[in-house]
């Protein structure tokens, strides 16, 4: 495996294997979100779960946010390239979420939650913030940023591979539509 495969697995792996992997990761996403009381209200955003919501609410919201992204991206893909296949867009959305899945379990760890709470409680009195808590949250924040960028790279490369876009106007349109999907999904769900 080389760097090209890591950043664009859509070129190397069969779409059925990618789909199976994506579906398995989606299922894991549901249970991980339940574990840490999160909900995936858009493809690149997790928010806190309300107290009265359970696993079925997580399943519904996560599913609807993915479906919204897939449907809108598929419409855009068909406009840009009529030969785009639905499975390629579905795989793009599913596979691009894998790096974000790494972040969920860490956010559920009790010592990490305690460090975040400590920072939140003492934001106005920095002298009360533990250097260990600050270091842990800062390092994990940096790692999370890297994972988010990797997720976006997979998302872009998957869409680019599925649609064969090359013009900068199409890339800008894709970025704009993706931003709108993310915002609208968070508002709706």
TrEMBL record:
Membrane topology classification: Multi-pass membrane protein
Transmembrane segment boundaries: 18-38, 58-77, 89-111, 131-156, 168-188
InterPro entries: Yip1_dom (IPR006977)
Keywords: Membrane, Transmembrane, Transmembrane helix
Transmembrane helix listed as a keyword: yes
Superkingdom of origin: Bacteria
Domain Yip1 as annotated: residue spans: 66-184
Subcellular location: Membrane
Coiled-coil zones: none
Pfam families named among the record's database cross-references: Yip1
GO (cellular component) term, any one: membrane
Protein name, entry field: Yip1 domain-containing protein
Native source organism of the sequence: Chryseobacterium piscium
């Amino acid at each position: 495996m080389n760097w090209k495969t890591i950043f664009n697995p859509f070129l190397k792996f069969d779409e059925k294997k990618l789909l199976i992997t994506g579906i398995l990761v989606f299922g894991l996403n549901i249970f991980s979100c339940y574990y840490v009381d999160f909900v995936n209200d858009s493809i690149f955003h997790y928010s806190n779960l309300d107290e009265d919501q359970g696993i079925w609410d997580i399943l519904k919201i996560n599913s609807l946010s993915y479906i919204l992204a897939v449907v809108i991206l598929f419409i855009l893909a068909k406009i840009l390239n009529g030969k785009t296949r639905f499975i390629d867009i579905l795989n793009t959305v599913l596979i691009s979420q894998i790096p974000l899945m790494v972040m969920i379990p860490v956010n559920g760890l009790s010592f990490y939650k305690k460090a975040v709470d400590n920072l939140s409680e003492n934001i106005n009195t920095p002298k009360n913030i533990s250097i260990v808590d600050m270091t842990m949250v800062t390092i994990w924040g940096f790692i999370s940023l890297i994972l988010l960028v990797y997720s976006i790279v997979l998302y872009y490369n998957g869409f680019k591979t599925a649609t064969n876009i090359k013009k900068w106007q199409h890339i800008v349109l894709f970025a704009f539509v993706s931003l709108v999907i993310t915002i609208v999904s968070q508002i709706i769900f």
